Automatic annotation (TrEMBL):
GO terms for molecular function: DNA binding; DNA-binding transcription factor activity. InterPro entries: GntR_C (IPR011711), TF_FadR/GntR_C (IPR008920), Tscrpt_reg_HTH_GntR (IPR000524), WH-like_DNA-bd_sf (IPR036388), WH_DNA-bd_sf (IPR036390). This is Transcriptional regulator, GntR family. The keyword DNA-binding applies.
């Protein structure tokens, strides 16, 4: 064993296993969401342990967290496997999203601060400027503007449980279904719907805010499912 090997062998215990498992969970999550680990692929514990230079304990803890977040499935017969992106799973995801984001919009209409309101208005104005060609658009898995709009409303709900369910659990899953079809007409429609939701929120009309948000998500659900078929 070389001096480097001895040093490498001593490096892992310096980091608490809980911290190591947390870091590994984040790395594996990003690898799945970025497509580096393909959907539906089987996960080999020995290969992952070697690739990330970790022992089986932290690895299994990280895999358990991935299972809790519904990014992988585990069974006695097939072991660990990344989930498949199916129309059925997407439909279930959007059904839950519609209810949760409707509640977030309702709560934001009551609890939104001046800072939240100003930030949300800026997000909408940026989107509208991008559509008019006045400002370049920054693309991401979900679309930066769309992501920022929904994240801001979730945060403005002031409900920690709701924020966790949406921002930490549901929104990452949506990245598995990212659309590569950049349709300008659909983006314009989305911008109009965002403006209607915003207007209801700043009017403190909780019922209208929830209704507009649920309609917006229901419409997106149809488009996303059609894109998968």
């Amino acid at each position: 064993m070389t001096h480097h090997d001895k040093h490498a062998g001593k490096s892992e215990p310096a980091e608490p296993s809980g911290t190591l498992a947390e870091r590994l969970f984040e790395q594996l999550t990003e690898a799945i969401l970025q497509g580096e680990i393909p959907l539906g692929s089987k996960l080999s514990e020995p290969l992952l342990a070697r690739k990330y230079n970790v022992s089986r304990g932290p690895l299994r803890e990280a895999l358990h967290r991935l299972q809790e977040r519904r990014l992988i499935t585990r069974s006695a017969n097939q072991g660990a496997r990344v989930i498949e992106a199916t129309p059925e799973r997407l439909s279930e995801l959007f059904e839950v999203r519609e209810m949760l984001e409707g509640l977030a919009a309702r709560s934001a209409a009551v609890n939104m601060s001046d800072e939240d309101r100003d930030a949300l208005r800026q997000i909408i104005e940026n989107h509208e400027a991008q559509l008019e060609g006045l400002k370049p658009e920054v693309h991401s898995a979900l679309g930066t503007t769309d992501r920022d709009f929904h994240f801001r409303i979730a945060q403005a709900s002031r409900n920690p449980l709701l924020i966790g369910l949406l921002c930490a659990e549901l929104y990452p899953l949506l990245r598995l279904y990212r659309s590569r079809n950049d349709n300008p007409a659909l983006r314009r429609r989305s911008a109009v719907e965002h403006r209607r939701i915003y207007d209801a929120i700043i009017d403190h009309d909780a019922e209208m805010a929830e209704l507009m948000m649920r309609r917006h998500i229901a419409s997106a659900r149809v488009r996303r499912i059609e894109a998968l078929l």
